[in-house]
User: Fold this.
Amino acid sequence: MGSFLTVGLTCCQRTPEQSFAKGVAYAAEGEFERAKEEFEGTLKVDPNHELAKRCLTLIEHINEQEIQTRTAVPFFQGATHALRGQWTEAIVEYNRAIGIEANYAMLYMGRGKAHVQIGEYNQAISDFTKAIGLDPNEARAYTNRGIAYHFKGLNHLAIIDFAKAVEINPRDAEAYNNRGKSCAKNGQYDQAISDYNRAIEIDPKDVEVYYNRGIAYHFKGWNVKAISDYSRAIEKAPQYVEAYNNRGVALQEIGQMDNAILDYSKAIKIRPTYAEAYYNRGRAYYIRAYYRQAIADYTKAIEIKPAYGVAYYNRGRAHYFSGQFDQAIADFTKAIEINPRDAEAYNNRGTAYASKGHYGQAINDYDRAIETNPRLATAYIDRGLVYMERLGNKDRACSDWERACELGECYHYTIAKRMGNCQ
Assistant:
């Protein structure tokens, strides 16, 4: 008797998103009754599918003659393009719909969202403002305008809009999540966490909210809580590459270096072009003094992002501690080229020059480091070491170490005074 192959009928069932897309396609052809069936089917599987609800409302408005069929068809054609990520084509169709009927809020909502997707935030804000004017109780218009303000960096305006959205609809989880992001961007982490908590209460399945709350916990220094939230996000979305990377950072900060490396490696496996994961794993290897592995990871990060200044800087440090001073100097030079205000790159290049016996070049770099950041204590310490130990200039060395002590780094000045080298 041969083995039986079990064939489940569920293989032919569509997901809510597939049903929704089918409904949009029917509506774009003017087949509104078939579209209605698909949208209703979407809501049976996912009762919170906001777009399906809105499309059903629009079809009701067609039946009640609040909107013309010849307006709805190009709107749904625009929605079809939007589902495919064809934002410019979507805007063309939304324009056509608005040209026929200029007083229907949903048309501006659709066009505004397409403008956001291609970075045209001013046009998006104008569209959402028009939608609010036509329907002042449309919470989603405030949420969407808030998102556009957030992307423009106008977080105070974004927060006002998200607050209005939750005032209209206290169960708008997306508005809470987005207000949390804007608060976090302003450094208001307690308020952000409060908003994320509310979003999770309303919709515990939203993976992004756990991830966002993890970021807020991380910036509060609550790494154990951050790890817990990143883990929840990963449980719900096992391919969530950013969550692996961020959990790695949190693990690294509490000293769990091996687990951090595992998370960075998982992120890299999922997305082999993830420069930040290579960079972070390089940092973990560097801390463990695995300089060869650190250099390899920094090199990979630079291959992916050639202007990754901090990767050049850290690769330079790994080269330095491997005794590869020329390579270190080359990397610090590149870091300075990318960011001429990088005082620590000047300071470290100075130390690499000093290690090669090029004391004049070392002093020049320490001078540049101090000029760039007069409060960089390590630059005074390192310049003082060259003056004292290599150039025999006690007065200059003592002056530098005294200044470092004023900045809170007193070890060298205290020892020099104890030994009678400084007054």
Q: What stands out?
A: The longest helix spans residues 69-83.
